[in-house]
Write a structure and sequence with these properties.
By secondary structure, the protein is mostly helical. It contains 17 helices and no strands. 75% of the residues lie in helices and 0% in strands. The chain is globular and about 65 Å long. The chain starts with 19 loop residues before the first helix and ends with a helix. The N terminus is likely disordered.
Length: 445
């Protein structure tokens, strides 16, 4: 059974004819220039695809973005996958999503090795001492930016506050917070809808405001297609996992990391900052990585193109490096990095290829909108927790009772002013922070 749009054929706006080779070249280029975090990457795609190339309309772009913001995982990479799928079907989505991350995989592998093998070299250590305070400022700025968008009502503010208390003081697992926030948002939206318009409250979507949208006609969801995509996705997950288990064991580091990062991919709403809060909370129990190394990893991820969630590759690399066992240390680290990256991004493709057609008929569902609003509000509290944890680790490296690092405090404040008020691009702030750290290390060590 298929869900068919009610638009009349003569009113349907057909998609623009975009040559696949031309699109391939663009996605390859995007993978190398997508600096600046999600905001910068989305801005690049909007400028190139909507304003300059006119491959899709403003409305089409924003609608795709809104859907990707609903999903766990990297919204910018998912947006690229979505648009590639709109233009050329599944092959277009695979090309767009894969090329968005391949350059950053290569660059971050090199940086991770340099960090692990030569982190004590004066220049490297100095660069990291400058990057860490900048990362603290980046996370605080992200918390305020997300908060402006997410906390629009008193209920949202309450959800954000409770999420912060739950994760910072009570150490509640992040997935539990996400589920509780979604349920709260859903219930509040249903109560409001019942109160404001009880006659129309049916628990279903209202008719779509733009029934002439070519996407909803060109790509119609069907149960057979959905089943096929899910089967292929499960096979693509099982085969590498089976190889890892057969090569080592079920309880080995790399098999455990494969399962862990897969689970993280399904619960990490809110992008890289939220996922890092979850991963550092959980990975700490495995002894894979320290908070200091997590801060360093985010700083390295900020200097590479691609999504910030690539910091998970760094965590996988360090886990393999620190717990190589009988393996060669570098080989263990590279395998850990690739396992983390594959398990993180595979679900993103499945989310798009399965969900995008169906989301068309759910666009105006009030319950779904409320649940997502609750999750987004909770993410504000989670990111505030991450900012405080990182800030304390950087500004008070010996603990809150120890001596404050005035250099780190001053550089964090300076970076925050540059990001929040002066609107300096993140890449420049990161590079300048690293350069300041190198100069300080060379001059005073």
């Amino acid at each position: 059974m298929k869900l068919v749009s009610h638009a009349s054929p003569e009113m349907v706006q057909q998609p623009p004819e975009v040559n696949f080779t031309e699109a391939f070249r663009f996605w390859a280029k995007l993978g190398f220039i997508s600096f600046g975090g999600p905001a910068g990457q989305i801005a690049i795609m909007h400028r190139e695809l909507v304003e300059r190339r006119r491959w899709l309309s403003e409305e089409r772009f924003l609608y795709a973005l809104n859907y990707c913001m609903m999903l766990p995982g990297p919204e910018a990479q998912q947006l690229a996958t979505y648009i590639g799928w709109l233009l050329h079907g599944i092959r277009g989505g695979i090309v767009a999503g894969a090329l968005f991350v391949l350059p950053s995989i290569a660059v971050l592998l090199v940086l991770s090795y340099i960090y692990a093998a030569y982190g004590n070299v004066t220049a490297v250590a100095g660069a990291l001492s400058g990057l860490k305070p900048v990362v603290v400022a980046i996370v605080f700025e992200a918390m305020l930016r997300i908060g402006k968008r997410a906390v629009k009502k008193k209920a949202h503010l309450l959800i954000a506050a409770l999420a912060f208390i739950a994760i910072y003081f009570l150490k509640v697992p992040f997935p539990v917070i996400v589920l509780a926030a979604a349920l709260t948002g859903f219930v509040l939206s249903r109560l409001k809808n019942n109160f404001n318009n009880p006659a129309q409250h049916q628990g279903l979507s209202q008719p779509l405001p733009n029934q002439t949208d070519w996407h909803s006609v060109t790509y119609r969801p069907s149960l057979g297609r959905t089943f096929s995509v899910l089967v292929v996705g499960i096979i693509l997950w099982l085969l590498p996992f089976a190889l890892v288990v057969l090569w080592s064991s079920w309880d080995s580091l790399h098999a455990t990391a494969y399962r862990f990062f897969t689970k993280a991919a399904f619960v990490t709403f809110g992008g890289a900052y939220a996922v890092l809060a979850y991963v550092t909370q959980a990975a700490g129990s495995y002894g894979w990585i320290t908070q200091t190394q997590a801060v360093d990893g985010l700083g390295l991820a900020e200097t590479t193109p691609g999504p910030l969630i690539m910091v998970l590759q760094f965590i996988g690399f360090m886990a393999g490096w620190n717990h190589a066992g009988s393996m060669n240390q570098t080989a263990s680290a590279v395998l850990g990095a690739l396992v983390a990256t594959y398990a993180t991004f595979l679900p993103s493709f499945i989310f798009i290829f399965v969900g995008a057609p169906y989301i068309e008929v759910l666009r105006n569902n009030q319950g779904l909108t409320g649940a997502l609003a609750g999750i987004t509000a909770a993410v504000v509290g989670v990111v505030l927790n991450l900012a405080l944890v990182f800030g304390l680790a950087v500004v008070w490296p010996s603990g809150i009772d120890g001596q404050i690092s005035w250099f780190a405090a001053f550089l964090s404040g300076l970076a925050f002013v540059a990001l929040y008020w002066l609107k300096v691009e993140v890449l420049w702030v990161v590079l300048i922070g690293g350069l300041i750290g190198v100069m300080r290390g060379v001059l005073f060590n």
